[in-house]
Amino acid sequence: MSEPTEIRTEVAVVGAGPCGTTVANYLGLYGVQALLIDRSTEIIDYPRAVGMDDECVRSFQGIGLAEEMLADAVRNVPLKMFGADGRCFADIRPTTNEYGWPRRNIFMQQLAEATLRTGLERYPRIRPMLGHELVRLEQDGTEVRLDVRGPAGEKVLVRAQYVVAADGGRSTIRTHLGIPLVGNTHPRKWVVVECDNDPLDAPYTGLHCDPKRPYVCVDLPYNYRRWEFMLFPGEDAEAMLQPEKVHELLTGHVPDPTALNIVRARVYTHHSRVAARFLDGRICLVGDAAHLMPPWAGQGMNTGIRDATNVAWKLAAVVTGRAHPRILSTYDTERREHAKAMVGLSDTLGRVLSSTSTWAARTRDVLLRALTVAPQVRDWLLEMRFKPMPRYTEGVVLHSRRPVAKDSAVGRMIVQPHVETADGRTVLLDDMLGEWFTLVGYGTDPLVHLDPESRAFWDRIGTCYVTIVESRSGRSRAERLRSGTDSVVLEDLDGALRKWFAAQSGTVAVIRPDRYVAAMADTAELAGMSGEFERLLSPRRQPDAHDGKPARPAALLVDGGAS
Q: For the chain, what is the mean pLDDT?
């Protein structure tokens, strides 16, 4: 028997769906060597995720693919909820864009996956191994060994420092590790139907809460449309996929069901489950391998992309020696509780919107219509403020006091307004923050207030430095404020960053690679905070005599560090 081919890599990503390919793109961006392993060579072409929120698009922005993703999406799609009587009781059209992108974007997953796979071609250290199936794996304190079978049955032994399990809801890796999916499976199944000759003039996502048969109707890009119908006890799932049954389901919803070109029809079961742990030794679970949720909140893939963005920078920090391996434990700390919250939101919406009791449905409609008369409730619903936003109170964050203040920005994503560069370009903030950590000062240059030891630490981990100034605070367009250091100066075009910083206790923010605020400090506290943060990333480092002391006075430039 021939010996298997042996491949060594820093990270092996198993599963080339949207979460796995997002991890691989980020690892490529960070210069990490990685394999992307998937048993299929083709992109799955049946109905799956269709909703992409602002946080998700921002993650794709980080790997330079946001605009390419949105080129195949419909932006700012309304979400309408219809009661038992067929009347709309909620027309959700979020207008906020605090993270720089629309909150509701409708796309087709197969097109998004193609974009992500093409994106990998930019990174020479990323090697796709499509058509390769994971057979088994084992790990010890130094590596993970994966037995992989190639398309012709050839054996490959992969030795990786770390593994990302992005292999879906039936994850081979999660099963092998014996990690349970905690939660429940819903008894009702759903038929999902898509056509490519949409006959309706209904440019929105409709949640039709009809107790006779709840259903969802989604306007998709490129003249596609999707319907999702609940099945009742006694209805045979496979029989309901037959053309005559599909036409029966669509009767009353389109002028002529037989005229539709049905391109996909499948039966789905809804699950509400979260893995008992997202980290096992050197193996991280992401996406559906880590959590499953009903589609009511449209957050399944979005939650997985948050996982991918979080775990990728931590793996990169560890394998490049910029952080201690213990920070990987914060992936579970930060992501698992939020995934539970998203599953809870999906369950709550499902209970409210998919009732099959006529009395309960009518009671619900009356109550919701009455509640939305109140402006605060109406805004809470219409602006999608019901969606739990990630907030990390533990993990790679430094909070100035405990308990954590409710309005503290630490542990939350920083806003992303437009800013203006020194050469007069208007760009989104992230485009100027670099790919790694960033120290951002408002009205003050962080570099002016760093002592040599603190500066050495931030430089060592590849930090960018940014100074935000008021819009038009120079003498003219030709004479903008400039930094006397290596800090990049940006103008706060709409005053959004001034408002954001004014609500916080510090003037300097530490922004993580995933755009979450890791810490905030006043200039006098910057050296002490820097020492704490170094110990957070490298727990074995011993404190020295300077740690925790205020920074020594530095030569100040005009306007607190911008000249």
A: 90
